Structure formats: C-alpha cells, structure tokens
Amino acid sequence: MADKKLMKLDILLLVVVLIGVVILARLVIVGKNQQKLLKEYERARASFHMTDAQIASLGKSGKEFFEGLKRQDEASAVMAFAALVELERGEVESTKKTLETGIAIYYRGHRADGNSNLLRNVEIFAARNTSLSNAIYKRLE
Q1: Which of 21, 43, 109, 125 is deepest in the core (most CB within 10 A)?
Q2: Are residues 20 and 40 in the same domain?
Q3: Rounded to whole angstroms, how far apart are CA atoms 37 and 77?
Q4: pLDDT averaged over 10-residue windows placed end to end, the chain, 141 residues
C-alpha cells in the first residue's frame, strides 16, 4: 500500500513537472514573440518619427490613416506614370513640367510643415534651375 501511495505521488509529481515544463516552454515562446513584436513596433515608431501617443491615436483612426496613405501613393503613381508616358514619347520638356508641378504642389502646400531636408534640397536646386524656380515661386496660372 505504501508503494502504491508512493507511486501515485511520483506520478502526480511527474505530471505537475510536465505541466510546469509545458507552461514554461509556452511562456518562453510568448516572450520571444513579444520581444520580436516590440522590436518591430520600435522600428516602425522610429521610421515614422512618431511618439507612443501618436501611434496610440493612430490605432483609433488607422483606417483613415491608411486611406490617406493610399491616396498619397496613388497621386505619386499618377505623377510618375504621366512622366513615364511623356518620356516614352520623347517629350523631355513636358516631363520636366509634370515633375516640377508635383514638386511645386508639395513645396507650396508644405513649406511650413514639410520635410525640411526635401524643402531645402528643392530650394537649392531651384536656385540653379530657372524652370523649377518659376514653378515653386511664381504665381499660379
């Protein structure tokens, strides 16, 4: 009888240890997944230059944000496609005008809040390129 009780306790102990090992293994896997997710989050936050609060608010309006990105990508694709078609036809001056128009729209719309490096480079290039200078500084027709 004592052997049966001891065997039952041994089996119970073995089951408890096995359950503990399974739980521990699961926690290790979850922990690794959480670390990977955290690194991806930090990389995204750094790439978009956003704070935690901004990312949290993005979660509330994510659909609108991604729709906005889609429209921006669409506008860029339309501009690039138009330039490509003009280049294919050999219309270099027309292509320049198309590209200058896109640059001018960005420059005029985001001079105060846009990407400072891009704006500075546009201004530097416009200083030596009359056509771009006219596009970004002249009154719209």
Answers
A1: 125
A2: yes
A3: 31
A4: 77 88 88 89 84 79 80 88 92 92 91 91 95 86 58
Give residue 8's domain range: 2-57
Asked whether 83 and 98 are in contact (CB, 8 A), the reply is yes
Q: From 68, 32, 116, 46, select the one nearest 55 (Cα to Cα).
A: 46
**What is the pTM for the complete model shown?**
0.53
Q: b/e per residue, 77-113, with b = 16+ CB within 10 A? A: eebeebbeebeeeeeeeebbebbbebbbebbeeeeee
Q: How many residues does the chain have?
A: 141
Q: Is 28 left (phi over 0), alpha (psi -120 to 50) or beta?
A: alpha
pLDDT of residue 6: 78
Token pair of 2 as six digits: 């004592």
Question: CA 19 to CA 77: how far, in whole Å?
Answer: 56
